[in-house]
Amino acid sequence: MQHIVNMLSQQAQQQLDQVALKIWRNQAWQCFTWKDFSQQWTLVAKGLISLGHTEQQAVAIMSPNMPEWTIADLGILAARGCVVPIYPTNTVEQSQYIIEDANCQILFVGQEEQIQIGLELLNTGRINTLICFEDSHYTELENVLSWQQLLELGEQQDKQILEQRSERITMNDLATLIYTSGTTGEPKGVMLDHANFAAAFEMHDQRLEVNFDDVSLSFLPLSHVFERAWTYYILYRGASNIYLEDPALIQEALPRSQPTLMCSVPRLYEKIHAAILQKVAAAPKTKQLLFSWAMNIAQQRLLLKQANKTPNTLFTLRFALANKLVLTKLRAIFGPARLLPCSGARLADDINSFFQSLDVPINYGYGMTESTATVSCYSEMQKTIGSIGQPLEALQIKISEQGEILIKGDTVMRGYYNKPQATAETIVDGWLHTGDAGKLDTEGNLVLTERIKELMKTSGGKYIAPQRVEGALIREPLFEQVAIIADARHFVSALIVPAFEALEMHAKQLGIKWQHRNELLENAEIKSLIQARLKQVQTNLARFEQVKQFTLLPREFCMKQGELTPTLKLRRAVIESRFAEQISAMYAEPKTA
Questions:
Q1: Are strands 58-62 and 106-109 parallel, antiparallel or unpaired?
Q2: 492 and 545 in contact (C-beta within 8 Å)?
Q3: pLDDT tens digits along 54-78
Q4: How many helices (DSSP H) and strands (DSSP E) are in the chain?
Q5: Any domain includes 343
Q6: Which parts of the sequence belong to the AMP-dependent synthetase/ligase domain (predicted)?
Q7: Domain containing residue 578
C-alpha cells in the first residue's frame, strides 16, 4: 500500500509531458501536464507550510470543479494535512459549521459566490487565511491570497521542511473529513485515512480497466466522495481528467470533451431518456414506429445476452439493421465513452435496461461516503438488471435479521469526527450499518430494496418506501421532481414539479392559453393530463403505495432553499414544512386520482 501522493509522483515521473488535467476556459483548452501538476501541488504544500499549516491540520476547499481543486487537494496531502471539502452551493451557516467542527484555519475558494462566503468567515474570525483559485481584487485585502501568490510563497519555502514531513507520513494519517449532507440532522464528518483509499484502489483494479489513454470528464462535485475518489483512482491509473465547472453544461461538454470515462448520478440518464422519448413523441408516425421496432429488437438482444443465449442469423441481421438506422445515433450521444460509473441514487430498471440495450456502457453500482465510495458495481461480464452489481471482492457483506446491508473491509471509515456515539451506533463489531435494506441473489448480486431510515408508515400501518414510489413516478417525462407524502397519513399524496418545457408543449397542442405558469398548473385539462400520466406510471405499485392526490408546484425544489442536499436528495422535513398548506389541502377532502 502506498500514499496517494507517492503513487501520483510515480505517474508524474513516467508521463512528464502528457496531459494530466484539462479545462475549457475562455473558449480554449487549458492543459496541465503531469510535470505542471506535480510541481504545483509541491508548491501548494510548501506555501501552506509558510502560512503556518501544521501536520494533520484540516484545510477546507470550497469550489466548483477545476484543476486547481485537485492540485490544492494533493498539496494539502503532500503537506501531511487533512482535506475538508465543502459543497460550492453551501450557505454561510452550513460552511461555518464544517469549518468550526473540523477546526480549519485555511480555506480555498473558487468563484465569486464562494469568495463572498470565505470573506465573511475571514471577517468573523472563523478562518485565518483565504486563498482564491480565480483572480480577484479581494486578494489586495489582508490574509487573502491569490493562487499565484500561494505558489510564489511555496517557491520561497525551503524544500527540506516538506521532505521531512513526507518522511513522517503514514497510511493511518487522516486524508480527509467528508461531511455527509444529511437529509435530517447536522452533518457528520466521515474520517477516511490513506489506507482506506489505497484499499479502494486495489479493489477497483480487480473490477475495472482504466488506462493511460483514458480521459475522464469530472462534472459531479469533487466535494462528494464519488467524484473525488474516482478522480484519485483515474489519476493513479495514469488517465487524464477534464473538469467541468458548471454541471448544467454537461450536454454541451460531452461532444467537446469526448471522454472515455465519466461518473454520473441516475438523474442524468433519466433526463436523457425523457428527452429522447419527448423527441420521438414529436416525430412523424413513421419515425415513431421505426424507433419502437429498433428498441424492441435491442431489448430482445439484451434479454438473450442476459440469458447467455446466442441469437440466430435472422435476428442478427435484424439487429444490424436496427443498429444502423436507429441505435447508433442514440449511442452517439455518449461519444467514445467505454465506462460510465453510475451511483448516488436508484437507477430505475426500465431506464437501466433502455441504455444497456443500446450498449451504452453504464456501470451501475452502490456506495457510501462511509465506505470510501464503492461497495458493489457491475462487472464487464455481468450486468444484472434489478441489482446493484456484485460486492467488491475484498469486502465482506452480510444481511442482518432486519434486512439491513452490513459491510466489513479495509475501505470502511475510521468513524465520525467528534461523534463517538454516532460512530458506535453505525459501526458495531466492525460491521458498518448502511441504513439500506437489501438482499443477495443466487448469483451473488446485491439487490437494494429500500432505505430503512426513510420508510414511511401510513396511519393504516402500511410501510411505504418513498424512493421506490418516487422512482416509479419520475419515469414519466412530464415529471421533473416528485416528493411523496405518506408518514402518519391515511393515503399517499405527492408534490409534483412538472417538466415545464414538455408541459408547455402539450398545452399548446391542446390549445390551452395561459399567461402565467400558475394558470397553466390550475387548468383542468392539464390536471387531467397529469392524472392520466400518474395512473400509467403506477401500474406496478401496490394499491396502498399509489398516489391518490397530487399538487403541482410552480418551481423546482432547490439547495438554496434548503429543500435538497448537495447530492440532490430531498430534505423531506424542510419540504413538508415549506409546503404545509398545500399538503393540508390534499388531505382536507380526500379524493382519488
A1: parallel
A2: yes
A3: 999 999 999 999 999 999 999 999 9
A4: 22, 27
A5: yes
A6: 9-417
A7: 455-588
